Amino acid sequence: MEKEMSYGSDYKPIPATSMASGVGIEVLPDLYCHTVQIVNINLVGNPETNDFVLVDAGMPGSVNEIITATEARFGSTSRPKAIILTHGHFDHVGAVIELVKHWNVPVYAHELEMPFLTGKMSYPDPDPTVEGGLVAKISPLFPNEPINLGNKVETLPTNGKVPHMPKFRWIHTPGHTPGHVSFFRESDRALIAGDAFVNVKQESLYKVFTQEQEISGPPRYLTPDWEAAKNSVIELESLKPIVAVTGHGLPMTGELLSQSLEELVRDFDSIALPDYGKYVN
Ligand SMILES: [Zn+2]
Ligand SMILES: [Zn+2]
Questions:
Q1: So what's the pLDDT on residue 2?
Q2: Is 11 inside a domain boundary?
Q3: What is the 195 CA–ligand 2 centroid distance (Å)?
Q4: CA 167 from centroid of its chain's CA atoms
Q5: Where residue 1 falls among pLDDT bands split at 50, 70, 90?
Q6: Does some domain include residue 206?
Q7: What range does the record give for the signal peptide (predicted)?
Q8: Mind listing the pLDDT tens digit for each residue in 218-228?
Q9: For residue 232, which of 123, 140, 170, 173 is within the disulfide window of CB 3.0 to 4.6 Å?
Q10: Among residues 225, 201, 197, 227, which one has the least CA distance to residue 213?
Q11: d(CA 280, ligand 2 centre) in Å
Q12: For residue 164, which phi and psi values (nearest 5 degrees)?
């Protein structure tokens, strides 16, 4: 019997936004990145084949925006084959339940992310005391309790393959969350990094608003394991991606991306690691 899906009791819209909100960018012919307020969703697949998936599911309350963006790209009544999650933070699963109901599609995530997607475990509390800007200060407002997708969520295959994303493989990139994954395609070195690193200083309300491009580690207020986070960045840099879309900020490509990633690895402790906060030392 199908169980009712539910959000946590602290689920609510968050009124933060950016200049990129509502804007979509065709990063590659089969990779479309759309910004919902302050977070990105990706439509992966070629519009001509109508065979595509949604990577991540936006902010709370964004279901209509996501359906509209999807239908604008793939045609009315189009639906993805699946929803694939980089991780289960509220800003990446904000509309997932409504979308699953509307499209009747499965959700995939890493095994270690399951407790947060099946109502079993809350994420660690966000850290408002962490070094950084105003977004960190308001982070206690963010929904933190697990959602419950019941039997609609499945684990990613253990062989690294990604359902309905034939040329991509998933890479376990923990640190920001235990089951965080990124997606990489060797043939054109395209990377969907989630929040393993991001292209904007996500702690700063001003920089989030302007979307000023600046490579950064994972959002500080929600990252409890900095050692794992650093190793994940090192692994992603070693893939030498040519194009990267991240959970927050504008897509980054070419020389700017490779130089920024090299810098992030080299100076991780000064760029990414907060000077203080409850999850450092
Ligand atoms: Zn996150
Ligand atoms: Zn995020």
A1: 52
A2: no
A3: 5
A4: 19
A5: very low
A6: yes
A7: none
A8: 999 999 999 99
A9: 173
A10: 201
A11: 19
A12: 65, 10
Query: Cβ–Cβ contacts within 10 Å for residue 257, how many?
Result: 21
The CA 176 to ligand 1 mean position distance, Å, reads: 6
Tokens of 132: 């950084």
Q: Which CATH number do you get for residue 206?
A: 3.60.15.10
Ligand 1 centroid to residue 259 C-alpha, Å: 24
Read off the pLDDT of residues 9-67 as tens digits, 9 standing for 90 and up.
999 999 999 999 999 999 999 999 999 999 999 999 999 988 999 999 999 999 999 99
Determine, yes or no, domain membership for 277: no
pLDDT of residue 133 exceeding 90? no
Ligand nearest to the CA of 91: 2
Q: Calculate how far, in angstroms, residue 19's C-alpha sits from the geometric centre of ligand 2.
A: 17
Ligand 1 midpoint to CA 39 (Å): 9
CA 88 – ligand 1 centroid, Å: 7
How far does Cα 85 stand from its chain's mean position?
7
Which domain, by its residues, includes 81? 24-271
163 CA to middle of ligand 2, Å?
22
- Tell how far the Cα of 49 is from the centroid of ligand 1, in angstroms: 31
Assigned domain for 123 exists: yes
When pLDDT is averaged across residues 65-83 and rounded to a whole number, the result is 97
Question: What CA–CA distances, in Å, run from 97 to 80, 116, 153?
Answer: 14, 14, 11
What's the pLDDT score for residue 3? 67
